[in-house]
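User: Some background: our group keeps a shared notebook of sequences we're curious about, and every so often someone picks one and asks for a predicted structure to add to the entry. Today it's my turn. The entry only has the sequence so far, pasted here. Could you supply the structure so I can complete it?
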Amino acid sequence: MPQEIVLTNTRIVLEDEVIAGTIVLRDGQIAALDTGVAGRGEDMEGDYLIPGLVELHTDHLESHYAPRPGVVWESIAALQAHDAQVASSGITTVFDCLRLGSDEDGGFERGEMRAIAEAIETAGAQDRLRASHLIHLRCEVSASNVLDHFEDFRGDPQVRLASLMDHAPGQRQFQTLDAYTLYYKKKRGLTDAEFERFVARRIEESNRYAAPHRRAIADACTERGIAIASHDDATIEHVEESKAFGVRLAEFPTSMEAARASHDAGMAVLMGAPNVVRGKSHSGNISAKALADATVLDVLSSDYVPFSLIHAPFLLADEDGCMTLPESIRLVTATPADAVGLNDRGRIRPGLRADLVRVRHRSGIPVVRSVWREGRRVA
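Assistant: Of course. Here's the predicted structure to add to the notebook entry:
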């Protein structure tokens, strides 16, 4: 017997309009949309129904796995804690970022990220997770060991996205030493002499490894059908390099010039939803709102605050007024899904996955009231 769920008296956010009506879910898919209020089903009390959010870049799992310096939590328990917060924020598909390559002393050992990937696979198979979890490999191309770490993921079908990063001083995000000093000297308590040696080593590693590692990883991703993301592109030259590597997603461009060039080249420009909520970048780079005003913002990511992914679209549509609600919701649903080839979700349309979020929003901060993944209520 087919399982059917009817949700009525709701405002359904489609790709280009909001309609008042009823939605029918059957066997994990959206079966039908109708205008008007049905005489049966669950009353949504006029709340919005939006597609389940698609999160492409979140480091949030790390904060559960390693909550304090020297503390490592059991991986499945950490994953479940992360998953619960993600799902209750309306995220039904999440790309968990796993760091490959060490850009500083310490960090994660080889094998730790592989173990987390296996925990994701195990937890999914055991039906422990509310959201659908996939993997985004954050590849520090200036690290000497990144190719070894990358090789640990050969043949893993969970890997659907890889980003090419270089966090060495003078590169991308850290083109000046001001932000780099805050991130590494003050954060790690280095003396002036220690910091000077650290900077010199990282510059040497970037000069030696970044270019060949970037090419090797890009080639491997192309061969394996893994979507490629750039990271912190700052100049036209960076964007041209990304185009040559077949990049589909431009993560966190640091200048308007790079963002516009990436967008015009057909890459989806991704910025952090916390940037929208705070009104500025935490590292002093360009604001996401400026890119939205310039119509070159395509995707939002929660980055380090899961709830920001549902909060930011309503800010852009209501308070900032630079987008309609359907346009801002596309930033966290349809466009990220398209960027990584997930054509079965991200929109409310018959035949697609019944990944849905019920949101109450009159003014201020939205409230996530219910979440369905493939027609099953998970939050």
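Suggested note for the entry: The chain has a mean pLDDT of 91. Residues 14 and 348 are 6 Å apart (CA to CA).
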